[in-house]
Design goal:
With 217 residues, the protein is an alpha/beta fold. It is built from seven helices and five strands, in the order αβαβαβαβαβαα. Strands 2-3-4-1-5 form a five-stranded parallel beta sheet, covered by helices on one side. The radius of gyration is 20 Å and the shape is globular.
Length: 217
């Protein structure tokens, strides 16, 4: 353990081969991460959408895909966001490539971490190191929670609120949407998973799969 960062003894084994129905998303993530690994300009990435649709799994799959080529993923809890500029300075001196991983990210309107992340991504005088990217997952597109009160107070006030909510998400060069599959897409995923086990889907299995979907979302 160094600088408060400790390694994971048993990383999640998820690979892209196990993620079905995310072909475009996988292609974009791999292309962007490949650029990082080659030392080329790459983008910070926001993965947002419905829960349980593979956002975190995609980041874990990237680690498993590129770890042997020197990719390191550092998962940061929200209360450590203020330390990102300090991390940038330390990581810039290292030979590896890094992804700072912020999982399940959302903010209340006045949380200090919100502004800290904005500054860290695009607002500090020092340049962001080319060997570090930020990948964040969230259930909300604009990251900051909004209520109807935020829309009150006249057109200027409402416009200012909306610009504030958009300004952080716009700092991610790539935004990827993860949508919950409809029933046909869901059953197609089930069929492909079963096929890998040598099992052919039947109406009885489809019925059980639909019941499971209704129970567990």
């Amino acid at each position: 353990e160094a600088d408060g960062i400790s390694g994971i003894e048993s990383p999640d084994p998820t690979t892209f081969d196990t993620l079905i129905g995310l072909e475009h998303i996988k292609e974009v993530l791999i292309d962007n991460t490949e650029a990082l690994m080659r030392g080329e300009r790459a983008n910070n990435v926001l993965l947002f959408g419905d829960r349980g649709t593979g956002k975190s799994s995609c980041v874990k799959a990237l680690l498993n895909m590129y770890c042997e080529r020197g990719l390191k993923v550092i998962e940061l809890p929200k209360n450590c966001i203020g330390k990102i500029p300090e991390l940038f300075k330390k990581l810039a001196k290292m030979p590896h490539k890094f992804i700072l991983y912020l999982d399940d990210l959302s903010f209340e309107k006045h949380e200090p971490e919100y502004r800290s992340l904005k500054v860290a991504m695009d607002g500090q005088l020092g340049a962001t190191p080319q060997n570090v990217l930020i990948y964040a997952t969230s259930n909300r597109r604009h990251l900051i929670k909004e209520n109807w009160k935020d829309r009150e107070g006249g057109d200027v006030h409402a416009s200012d609120n909306m610009q504030e909510m958009l300004s952080l998400s716009e700092r991610f060069g790539i935004s990827l949407v993860f949508s919950a599959p409809n029933q046909k897409e869901y059953l197609d995923i089930v069929a492909k998973l079963l096929k890998r086990k040598g099992i052919k889907i039947t109406p009885q299995i489809e019925q059980k799969a639909i019941i499971w979907q209704m129970n567990y979302g």
